[in-house]
Amino acid sequence: MTAILSAEALRYAFPGDVTALDGLSLSVAAGESLAILGPNGAGKSTLLLHLNGSLRPQGGQVLLGGAPVGYSRKALTAWRRRVALVLQDADDQLFAATVFEDVSFGPLNLGLSAAEARARVEEALEMLSISDLRDRPTHMLSGGQKRRVAIAGAVAMRPEVLLLDEPTAGLDEAGSAQLIALLQGLMARGMTLVFSTHDVELACALASRVALFRAGQVVGQGAASDILSDRAALTQVGLAPPLLYDLALRARDLGLLDPTAALPRTRAAFEALLQGWAKR
Ligand SMILES: Nc1ncnc2c1ncn2[C@@H]1O[C@H](COP(=O)(O)OP(=O)(O)OP(=O)(O)O)[C@@H](O)[C@H]1O
């Protein structure tokens, strides 16, 4: 595995001696979609803030493309061009008057020509399906629209890695489904994603790999299909398998499903299983 971004033995405590990262190590491979999965307070947001240099570790180090990162202004600017972070609350991220201006901010700051910046903005708006919102005031958008504008602003930088903190938090079912489809589209274009969540269904829909977090440490990691169907591993972080896996595991326990058969990850795959059982 070629690590594009990695954390080695990171330690970080907030004032008051609140340990957020407790010797945490993790690598991100190019082209993968990594879910940082764990309960509230496990250290997920703190890790993401370290992965784009917004926080500096008190112990350990972050490596980008295999080399330790620097924290000078110049080094941080170069780093954030390659690794973009989308915050959980879009209101913390959006500040320009209109959607177009907001998404333009990053590309213009890169020193690109107006024409090149515009092309990148158009592309990002298109990728997030918000071209029609381009002239709208950012403060008059819905939560889901704001989230997409914030992601477009990050995508317009053409980063190598996109970090997303709880990308579907606060969205309704339709808004979540739409955002998941858009993020799947970014993955299909080869974007490397790292996202934090406590939602096993989101991890199931979007992750190729999952790292389980608890108390500032990684307590398990592996292919999404392995981790998300591992009841014991999920239980140690207070979670249970996603619904489809849970039902399929139950079917396996009842002898309905061959123990070596792959578990269904989508509704369509589960439906195919049901059709097979109906024919028996
Ligand atoms: N600004 C802060 N000041 C003090 N303590 C903080 C601060 N931010 C986070 N913490 C603490 O650090 C620990 C890790 O928090 P973090 O936000 O990284 O967890 P998380 O896994 O992202 O949680 P959530 O799912 O609730 O967003 C928690 O104990 C939290 O209370």
From TrEMBL:
MF term (GO), any: ATPase-coupled transmembrane transporter activity
Keyword Signal: no
Protein's UniProt keywords contain Magnesium: no
Intracellular or extracellular location(s): Cell membrane
The family this protein is said to belong to: Belongs to the ABC transporter superfamily.
Purpose: Part of an ABC transporter complex. Responsible for energy coupling to the transport system.
Name recorded for this polypeptide: ABC transporter ATP-binding protein
Species: Rhodobacter aestuarii
Organism placement in taxonomy: Bacteria, Pseudomonadati, Pseudomonadota, Alphaproteobacteria, Rhodobacterales
